[in-house]
Amino acid sequence: MVVMTPARTRIDVTLGERSYPIIIAPGLLAEAGTLLGETLGTGTVLIISDERVAGLYAQPLRSSLERCGMRVHLETFPPGEEAKTLDQASRLWQACAGHRLDRCGVIVALGGGVTGDLAGFVAACWMRGLRLVQIPTTLLAMVDSSVGGKTGVNSPAGKNLIGAFKQPQCVLIDPELLRSMDDREYRAGLAEVLKYGVIRDAPFFAWQEEHAEELLARDPAAVAQAVAQCCRIKAAYVAADETEQGVRAELNYGHTFGHAIELETKYARYLHGEAVGLGMRMAAALATGLGVLGDGDLAARQDRLLARYHLPLTYTVADPAAAAQRLAGHCRLDKKVAHGRTRFILPRRMGEVVTHEAPDAALVVEAFASALRGA
Ligand code: GLY
Q1: pTM, entire model
Q2: Does domain 9-180 fall into CATH 3.30.365.10?
Q3: In the beta sheet, which residues pair with residue 165?
Q4: Is residue 234 among the annotated active site residues?
Q5: Annotation marks residue 192 as catalytic
Q6: Is the dihedral of CA 171, 145, 47, 56 positive or negative?
Q7: What is the mean pLDDT of residues 321-344?
Q8: Which CATH number fits domain 193-374: 1.10.10.2910, 3.10.20.30, 1.20.1090.10, 3.30.200.20?
Q9: Closest protein CA for atom 2 of ligand 1
Q10: Which of 92, 181, 214, 258 could staple 222 via S-S, CB 3.0–4.6 A?
Q11: Which residues line ligand 1 (CB under 6 A)?
Q12: pLDDT in tens, 166-224
């Protein structure tokens, strides 16, 4: 039983016997031992983190866990998406064996999206499933990837194509950890925060319009409030549709376009959130083209908030017409393709989206072209 102090927010992901809490509070990292000891006992813990994050936060986490009687090991890997491979997972499984991590053990993912996905996948497979705790250290991981159980690695065939659903026992979010984030990465995370307003929560979008400067300045109270609201929305989607058979796909708003941009630019030019920001603009253009968008203000409000978050509004290319054709082709390879049809999540009005399958190919090309500019 986790005792909540007033400064703490607890959000439950309701999934029957796999339900778990998301706990949000400044300074939580130093209390991880007490919080986790109550549910996990005093077994062996393996912290998995990249070298940069480990240098910042592994020691305070380790001390907190050891003070509560846990035996703690740390395994690190080089930072970056390149580490999300089966080879790296194999190395970590060897480490699990070396540390004698048995079924009473726990893996703690300490880091951003790459760490959560990789460590989660290692936990999902080792001994057919070990307990997992997510401690996200980036905005993107706090508002999205640490919640909901998607884990995996990349392969030559594509990103995240090898993976498993592995719900954690608990997600511990300490917004103070965001202080060490690079500005550009932090702002890219705000694209996902904006996304929640468009897909599900018009008042939250309006709240962001009022508090954009505080969020940009990483004001602790504003950040904690935004993270909590994103987690509430995400928890509701996951509880309704854990394995993305239906409504959970709405979380992919902007992502079908964004993934095509990431593929076209070889994952080197845009951060994920930046590509998703461009993708949300393109989704609004497609919704307009299809006559789905019934809110004349939405696209302009979305653009203004993206601009206030300093996210790119246009993607500059030498030949926009040719690029739009190529990008539309990439969509057909997207993971969200079902029965050969690409699914697009499109805004209907602020706080409401619809799924559209296989729209007219020319409209998709036009939607891409709407945010492309000639060099
Ligand atoms: N990142 C989208 C999801 O977890 O479903």
Answers
A1: 0.95
A2: no
A3: 150
A4: yes
A5: yes
A6: negative
A7: 81
A8: 1.20.1090.10
A9: 251
A10: 214
A11: 144, 148, 150, 244, 248, 251
A12: 999 999 999 999 999 999 999 999 999 999 999 999 999 999 999 999 999 999 999 99
Residue with tokens 């509560």: 68
**Ligand 1, residues 244, 253, 256: which to mutate, most atoms within 8 A of Cβ?**
244
Closest CA to 271 of 164, 136, 114, 162: 114
Band of residue 338 on the pLDDT scale cut at 50, 70, 90: low
For residues 37 and 44, what is the distance between their CA atoms, to the nearest angstrom? 11
- As annotated, the residues of the chain forming the CATH 1.20.1090.10 domain(s) are 193-374
pLDDT per residue over 116-175, tens digit each?
999 999 999 999 999 999 999 999 999 999 999 999 999 887 788 899 999 999 999 999
pLDDT tops 90 at residue 282: yes
Ligand 1 pocket test target in 145, 159, 195 with most atoms within 8 Å of CB:
145
**Residue 248 among the catalytic residues:** yes
| Residue intervals in the chain for CATH 3.40.50.1970 | 9-180
Ligand 1 atom nearest residue 144's Cα: 1
Q: Is residue 73 annotated as a catalytic residue, yes or no?
A: no
Q: From the CA of 150, give the closest atom in ligand 1.
A: 4
CA separation for the pair 359, 275 (Å, rounded): 21
Q: Is 150 a catalytic residue?
A: yes
